[in-house]
Design brief:
Blueprint (H helix, E strand, L loop, with lengths): L10 E6 L2 E4 L4 E4 L2 E2 L4 H12 L5 E2 H9 L7 H16 L9 E4 L3 E4 L4 E4 L11 H9 L3 H14 L20 E9 L11 H9 L5 E2 L2 H8 L7 H10 L4 E9 L4 E9 L5 E9 L5 H15 L4 H6 L4 H4 L4 H16 L2 H14 L4 H13 L3 H13 L6 H16 L2 H14 L4 H13 L3 H14 L4 H13 L3 H8 L10 H13 L3 H11 L5 H14 L3 H17 L3 H17 L3 H11 L7 H13 L3 H14 L4 H18 L3 H9 L13 H12 L3 H13 L8 H17 L2 H14 L8 H13 L4
Parallel strand pairs: 9-10, 9-11
Antiparallel strand pairs: 1-2, 1-8, 2-3, 3-4, 5-7, 6-7, 11-12, 12-13
Length: 772
């Protein structure tokens, strides 16, 4: 059941003691710092805060938190939720300050609460310099930022934050390349050690716009051996304006760190900045000083320097050996060598177990390889150490953590938007937001963001991938074909991009185009993904035998390439499609078999539960669903889409359509998400049909059909066409029924003999008296 919105009308925030509870953002902060509270305990808190001092009964709390959910025993679950809530708030059940248990009745909030009205209905906040200074001094960077933004918006519609400089060498539109950092000390331990430190310090500035290191290396080769002339030429080829170079040299006592800035277009030396280190242990401090002087000379204002200036020892590591390993990892990552970069990052965290950013890089590499359990572990470690990072890298850590560890998409999107506000020239938040909006079924927003990312970096392969998917989801196949046939982008070594080209070919019935992409993928370590796509295509056409062969080939390919989770995904695709096509014995066998694989993924557990529920194996489905919920209690897709669909499937199998309808209300905001292939609206239509409400079923089946562009494959579109025909038939709409039946028949015109949905279609048409 979808949680009801908490709070009386117009209430935006509740305040008690040092806590601030945002109704809209669903975040609890203590002294400005966000607390880690799971969604259900937070929802319980919001319900109690609506009527402070009053008892909220167990029945009311149960309805507000779970509705009629199959998997919940209310009394015990409320006890657990209250315990989690007290732990987060530092409360005690024996001597409560906030949450009091009323024996046999329910719970009540006993603290003093202030309800803050919506800002559009109440007085405007006036932000004074002492308020902002206090927030910054306390490390409350998120609140400080929003104070600045609010103050700027109050100043008037035409007002905006801006950076100023009366003698800047670089403008805030200039693009900067970080070149070689040479070591002339004779100490080989300092070789290739400090370049990433300088780059991280410069990336910390929202004023400067850096060209990605991998682009520069692709243009110049190895910066450490390239001449100044070659570096300047590469800078110009990338539309850069300034080249920054570094050097560390030995002195009679200690070291000298030197940074130089050059105008790329004419090779003119712009500025030289120096700093001294008395010993090897103070080298990073000297890099801090020299880089800050360079930022100032390039025109960054003092306010920005003071605000965005985390010491390198805190933002990276105090270990030069760990920093060297990290730098080598960055270089290998820029070359696309995942194995080598992984080894270097692992060495970095072995040398310094507190190196937050190195853990985050390992999380990203593991996630890109489909090693999701390992990725979550690395992201968790980075998140725990996030205060040992610069503001920008902290945003990198928390957004990836919410995306890939907890699965809290809303929080990830909010922090990506914050990242964009702080660093408007940074491509990462724009690109990743585009991907997130694609995942929840909003291709229009994704297109706008992908275009912005390409504007920031016209050479970004990832942004062109997001752009191409947005075109595909919007049905602009001409634009997709333009990307796929482009002399450069058409040859990108990215499986995701070639799968998009494959899907466009499916939509256009271009068998040659499909085979071209299958041929490209031959022998690729990720070949199982496109084989899985081919199996979906065969299933959507009713060619079950061919689909099963392709599913088997895809699963075996994934196992050969050491991707157990990919193999599990493939086998679960087959099990769920067999279930939705009515082959329940095969589904039960396949789902039970995949549960034997050694994978640890909540989404796959939930996917298995859905197949088992559809096939009528309710007891096992409930057990697997509980496991999925316990593994990912905050995951948006797992809980609000996948497990809601499991509850609906159980309702359908139990001939309890009202339970199914209620469960599927929670999925409505996620009906169009890419993970579900439009299945929720199809299931909702089936539930309405079972409940004797064909008119409502028509709306749900039509919703699937109208959004067919958002599905990778038309499986649920074809099934919805068939069921739409039957719904129209029951309503006496003969013309609508015939059109829908004919649409389904065209999709399945070459289906296997005995294909179950086709048999059902013929049965429906016989009932209507129509010819089959």
């Amino acid at each position: 059941m979808q949680a009801q919105e908490s709070g009386f009308p117009g209430c935006e925030t509740y305040l008690f003691d040092s806590f601030e509870v945002s109704v809209r953002q669903r975040i609890v902060r203590c002294k400005g710092e966000p607390l880690k509270i799971q969604d259900l305990p937070l929802q319980m808190l919001l319900v109690l805060l609506e009527t402070p001092g009053e008892i909220v009964s167990k029945d009311e709390l149960g309805k507000r938190l779970w509705g009629q959910a199959t998997f919940v025993e209310v009394d015990n679950s409320l006890y657990v939720m209250a315990g989690k809530l007290r732990k987060a708030l530092g409360d005690n059940a024996a001597e409560p300050r906030y949450i009091k248990t009323v024996s046999g009745q329910g719970y009540r909030f006993i603290g003093e609460v202030t309800a803050v009205p919506n800002s559009s209905q109440g007085p405007r906040l006036v932000v004074t310099p002492p308020v902002l200074a206090a927030a910054l001094a306390a490390g409350r960077w998120r609140i400080a930022l929003w104070c600045v933004l609010l103050a700027a918006s109050v100043a008037g519609a035409g007002a905006a934050l801006y950076w100023y400089s009366h003698r800047a060498l670089a403008s805030d539109q200039d693009r900067i390349v970080v070149g070689a950092f040479t070591n002339s000390t004779g100490n080989s331990d300092l070789d290739r050690t400090l370049s990433s430190a300088v780059e991280l310090k410069l990336q910390e500035s929202p004023y400067l716009s850096l060209i990605p290191d991998q682009k520069f290396r692709a243009a110049v080769g190895d910066p450490d051996t390239a001449s100044l002339k070659a570096e300047l030429k590469a800078c110009v080829s990338l539309n850069g304006q300034e080249l920054l170079k570094g050097r560390i040299a030995a002195k009679a006592q200690g070291y000298e760190v030197l940074l130089t800035a050059w105008r790329c277009s004419n090779g003119r030396l712009l500025t030289v900045q120096k700093a001294d280190a008395t010993s090897q242990t103070t080298i990073l401090s000297a890099v801090d000083v020299a880089t800050n002087r360079m930022r100032r000379s390039l025109g960054e204002p003092e306010g920005s320097l003071q605000r965005f200036n985390v010491p390198l020892v805190q933002a990276t590591t105090a270990s030069l050996a760990a920093l060297k390993a990290f730098t080598l990892g960055e270089e290998d990552r820029a070359k696309g060598d995942a194995d080598a970069s992984t080894a270097s990052y692992k060495l970095a965290v072995d040398l310094d177990p507190q190196f937050a950013l190195a853990y985050a890089r390992l999380g990203t590499i593991s996630n890109n390889r489909g090693q999701y359990a390992m990725s979550r572990q690395y992201y968790q470690r980075a998140f725990d150490l996030r205060n040992r990072a610069s503001d920008r890298e902290k945003l990198y850590i928390v957004t990836h953590y919410y995306e890939h560890t907890t699965g809290e998409l809303k929080r990830a999107i909010e922090d990506y938007e914050l990242w964009r506000t702080l660093y408007p020239r940074d491509i990462v938040p724009a690109n990743n937001l585009a991907i997130d909006y694609l995942s929840i079924g909003e291709p229009g927003k994704a297109l706008e963001l992908a275009e912005k990312a390409i504007e920031l970096d016209p050479t970004s392969d990832f942004s062109y991938g997001a752009l191409t998917e947005a075109y595909l989801r919007l049905g602009n196949y001409a634009k997709v074909e333009q990307q796929c046939s482009d002399a450069v982008r058409g040859k990108m070594n990215m499986m995701g991009f070639h799968r998009l080209c494959y899907r466009a070919a499916i939509a256009l019935n271009d068998e040659a185009g499909m085979q071209k992409q299958m041929q490209w993928a031959r022998g690729n370590p990720e070949e199982s993904e496109i084989l899985d796509d081919a199996a979906w295509v065969a299933m959507s056409r009713g060619k079950v035998s061919e689909a099963h062969r392709l599913f088997s080939e895809a699963s075996q390919n994934a196992i050969r390439n050491n991707s157990i989770e990919s193999a599990a995904d493939v086998q679960l695709d087959q099990a769920n499609l067999d279930a939705d096509f009515g082959d329940f014995p095969a589904t039960r066998r396949e789902a039970r078999q995949v549960l034997k694989l050694p994978f640890e993924s909540a989404s796959e557990q939930a996917y298995a539960a859905r197949a088992l529920a559809r096939a009528g194996d309710v007891s096992l489905a409930q057990a697997v669903a509980r496991k999925a919920a316990s593994m990912a209690p905050l995951d948006t897709i797992v809980n609000s889409a996948m497990l809601a669909s499991v509850r609906a499937a159980i309702g359908l199998q139990s001939h309890d359509p009202k339970q199914a309808i209620e469960a599927l209300e929670e999925t409505r905001p996620l009906d169009l998400c890419s993970y579900m292939e439009l299945a929720p609206a199809y299931y909702r239509g089936l539930a309405y049909m079972q409940d004797g409400q064909p008119q409502k079923a028509v709306a749900e089946f039509q919703r699937v059909i109208d959004n067919r562009l958002l599905a990778d494959f038309p499986v649920y579109v074809a099934l919805s066409e068939m069921e739409l025909g039957y719904a129209y038939q029951l309503l006496g709409n003969e013309a609508g029924s015939v059109r829908a039946y004919e649409s389904a028949a065209r999709i399945w015109r070459n289906a296997d003999p005995g294909f179950p949905p086709l048999r059902l279609l013929h049965a429906y048409r016989r009932l209507s008296g129509a010819s089959t």
